[in-house]
Amino acid sequence: MGVTAPGHAVRLIGVSKSFGAVRAVNAVDLGIGRGETVALLGRNGAGKSTSIAMILGLQQPDAGRVLLFGCTPEQAVLDGRVGAMLQEGRLIPRVTVAELVGFVAGAYPHPLMVDEALELAGLTGLGNRRADKLSGGQAQRVRFALALAGNPELVVLDEPTAALDVEARRAFWQSMRTYARRGNTVLFSTHYLAEADENADRIVVMDHGRIAADGSGDRIKRMVGGNLVSFDLAGAATEGLAQLPGVASLEIRGDRALLHTTDSDATVIALAQLGLVRNLEVAPTSLEDAFLTLTDDRTHDRTDDLEYDLAVNRSEAPGSRKVTA
C-alpha cells in the first residue's frame, strides 16, 4: 500500500520498537483501510501487543511513524476517533452499567447516546444492572460499550474474548459485527484462530516482530498449501516426504505425518506408490495449520528474538517437530 493512500484508518511506516536487547517490532509497514475488520495474529512475544500500544499512542516507536486517519495517535484519541478495549481493566463497582457508560461518554466531544452504545454492545435491558454484578460475558460487553462510547471511527480490541465461554464469545462477536456494519474500522488481536477466520475481512500474522503474512483467511491458507494430507508413519522413514509432488511443508506429530500440499491428488498418488496410506486423510488446510507453518521456528533468523524464545519454550508441546520444504 502507498504511504499517502487516502483511505487509511491506520498506517505504520517503518515502525520499530525495542526493549533492551529485545526487538519487539522490526521495521513494520502496515496499512488498514477505513471500514476494514482486521485480525492481528501471532504467538506471545511476536509483537502484537507492542504494535497495538503504539497504534494507541501508549508507547512511542524508536523508528518510523504511526498515523491514524493521517494524524498522530494522540491527536486521533483526543478527537474521539479511537476507542480501545484492552486486556487489563476492572469495572468500577457500585455504579450501574448506564451510569458508567454515560460517565465515559461525557469525556468525548461527539459521543454516542448511552442507549445506543448499550444496544450496539448487546446490553439492552442491562443499563440499570450494577457493573460489579455481571457475568464475565456481560462485563466484557460493558468494556466494549465503553470502547464505543465516544462514537469512534476505529476501535482496537486486544484479546477481547479471552476467558469467555463459547456462548459469551458468540454474543460478543455479534455485537462487534453490528458496530463494523456501520462503516467503522476494527482491529483486534486474538489467540482464537477460528474467530479471526470467521470475523475478519483480513488477517495479519506477526512473527519475530515482523509481518509474516497479510491477506484474507483463504489467501493465507493457500500460502502453505490448499489441503492437508495426513497418515500414520507406522515406523516408515520420513526422508523424501517433503519432496513429494505438491508438498509445501511437512510436519511430524508423534507417529503421524502431515503434508501441506497444493495438489493433494498428486501427493496421495505418490504416497500410494510408496505404500504410505495407513489411516490416510485429506482435509482443507485450516487457519491454525497455516499459522503454525508460517510461524515455524526453523524458518526464521532468531538472533534477537529473546522474548519470543522464552514464550516458545514455555508453550512448545512435546513430541512435535516440523520440517519446511
Automatic annotation (TrEMBL):
The keyword Iron-sulfur does not apply. GO terms for molecular function: ATP binding. Keywords: Antibiotic resistance, ATP-binding, Nucleotide-binding, Transport. InterPro entries: AAA+_ATPase, ABC_transporter-like_ATP-bd, ABC_transporter-like_CS, ABC_transporter_ATP-binding, P-loop_NTPase. The keyword Transmembrane does not apply. It is a peripheral membrane protein. It is found in: Cell membrane. Residues 10-233 form the ABC transporter domain. SMART domains: AAA. This is ABC transporter ATP-binding protein.
